[in-house]
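User: My advisor, Dr. K., asked me to get a structural model of this assembly before our group meeting. I'm new to this, so sorry if the format is off. These are the inputs:
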Amino acid sequence: MPSAEDIAHTVNRYIGLLAKGSADDLVELYADDATVEDPVGGEVHIGQQAIRGFYSAIEGAERECELVSLRIAGNEAAFQFRLTVKAGDGGLVIEPIDVMAFNDDGKVAAMKAYWAADNVTQL
Amino acid sequence: MPSAEDIAHTVNRYIGLLAKGSADDLVELYADDATVEDPVGGEVHIGQQAIRGFYSAIEGAERECELVSLRIAGNEAAFQFRLTVKAGDGGLVIEPIDVMAFNDDGKVAAMKAYWAADNVTQL
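Assistant: The format is fine. Below is the predicted structure of the whole assembly, which you can bring to the meeting.
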């Protein structure tokens, strides 16, 4: 089981990669058979290929990302963050709470993102 | 399925009852066969009797509770809050992120609380 320090390191790396990383970089944090449900209630992306496709949507955009709060318990983490995705003169800011469950290797086994339209601000 | 407004109402009622309610009041928010894992990685309390026992631990104490942030997606909610439990001249402040999944009747089917010792401050 990963330590709380391992989990904190991975969450901080995730935030850094949301700002500056490629889809391939982000997928490396995930287990082979991981699931991503973002937002919760939407489509569940299963496996690294599907997850790469999900993150490729933001890959080309200029982004900023900031961790707002982080809670770690057992082999899971819940964290609030603020992601800015720029597009031309505008863009959007989205402020989700994500939950990640980690496997014994410290890879993300499941991610669920809690947000809705009222957590998105147009720039 | 409960609406986002229904879910927000129940979360706000939960925060209010953490401050002022009895264990019985809190249990009324839960489905008969609900589960509570607080903190995540600890014992899972299954069913209303076990959940009542869990909340009875704070029932006698003077408390304050404040919702910090709330995200609603699908039939789930994630929210950060600050709970103060007073004991004599001291007490503690705990700042978890909780996740709740709701059933079709709008009752809480599952609650998971993300916090560890470093999210608890002694007064």
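One thing worth pointing out at the meeting: The mean pLDDT of chain A is 97.

User: Perfect, thanks a lot.
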